[in-house]
Amino acid sequence: MPFSTPLPRTAREVRLASVPAGLPAPENFAVVEAPLAAPGAGQVIVRNRYFLVFPGLRTLIGGEVEGVPLPALSSGDALFGPAVGEVVAAGDGSPLRPGDTVTHLQGWRDHAVVDAAHCTPVGDTLPDPVAHLAQGASAYGALTRLARVRTGDTVLVTGAAGAVGTLAGPIARLLGAGRVIGTTRSPEKAGRLTAELGYDTVLLAGSRVSFAAQLAEAAPEGIDVLLDTVGGEQLAAAVGAARQGARFALVGALDGQLSARRAGGSAPVEIDSFRIVVKGLSLRGYSGTDHPDVEEEWNGRFGAWLRSGEIIFPHTRIPGIDRAPQALQELIEGRHFGAVVVEV
After folding, report:
1. 326: exposed, middle or buried (C-beta count within 10 Å: 0-12, 13-18, 19+)?
2. Beta-sheet pairing, 83-90 with 43-53
3. Is 298 domain-assigned?
């Protein structure tokens, strides 16, 4: 088990110090030193370069994980999530070697011992390794497998300034959409979505004008496709604005998931089921595990689009693991544009 450089004996990691009564705040977390074991057979030590801050942590911390393919987090547990890093040591039998760049799910720490089988080597498909933390695969899979965007479609993307939405609009356009409408709560973000990402118009959720009225004005002939990350009144209004045979793909439910009154695992909403019937709508939830072929296809197209300049990866880099708990709070509060990535 050769090591190219002396290995650290400890790793810094973010732990859940206490379970919050409502939304998590920085005081609910602690950055601690933890022992770092040598890699066993088939394992590697990865020095993380970047890890993703994602809203799903709210659900894991809240403990409402029924149907979620990840475990709940209890007090004292280390957080986890998508990360990109460099292999610095490899145990016997590992197919990976020091110097390899990989993705894995042991983020929220500076070094991690990971089973090599749970690492994915990063080649040169994407021009920048951090782009492997983009959440575009969900948007791409939902728009190609469920909603199946057609040439000329009017597409509505809710939560358009988030990690999924900032890629969903441009993807819909590249797939042939004729008009792309987004939603956000921030006038500043609305301006960026139209100026930088090609959204035709952006509706302001939570404004004095009802969302349904804004949508009716923006799409007087209705919408063909919904890519929904929010739920709530925006989903209800989209049902009312749907054209005959419209296709709805739901990839998130932030309206309930990030509510201080809930625990992160529910998002009830009242929608008009009669309209669903008479308009012949399809309404399906997207899960990447149901479409294992999407990831490779997405990476190939994403890499080509990035290199051609047809798409960009909007994200905010937060320097330092000590700022990670604050970054999670800022994500929940909607302060950032695009994905939020901690640079270790």
Report:
1. middle
2. antiparallel
3. no
Q: How far apart are CA 58 and CA 280, in angstroms?
A: 34
Q: Which residue from 63, 56, 53 is spatially nearest to 19, judged by alpha carbons?
A: 63
The answer to whether position 28 is within a domain reads yes
Contact between 153 and 176 under an 8 Å Cβ cutoff? The reply is: yes
Does residue 199 contact residue 155 with C-beta atoms inside 8 Å? no
Structure tokens at 304: 């080509």
Given a cut of 80, whether residue 336 has pLDDT beyond it is yes
For tokens 């012949």, the residue is 280
Question: What confidence tens digit (pLDDT) does each residue in 306-324 have?
Answer: 999 999 999 999 999 999 9
Q: Quick one: 191 and 113 in the same domain?
A: no
Instruction: Record the tokens describing residue 223, joined without a space.
Output: 């919408």
Confidence of residue 5 (pLDDT cuts 50, 70, 90): low
Strands (E), 22-171: 29-35, 43-53, 83-90, 101-104, 111-115, 120-121, 154-157
* pTM, entire model: 0.96
One-letter amino acid of 187:
P
Residues 162 and 53 in one domain: no
Task: Report the DSSP pairing between strands 282-285 and 242-250.
Answer: parallel
Burial zone of 20 (CB within 10 Å; 0-12 exposed, 13-18 middle, 19+ buried): middle
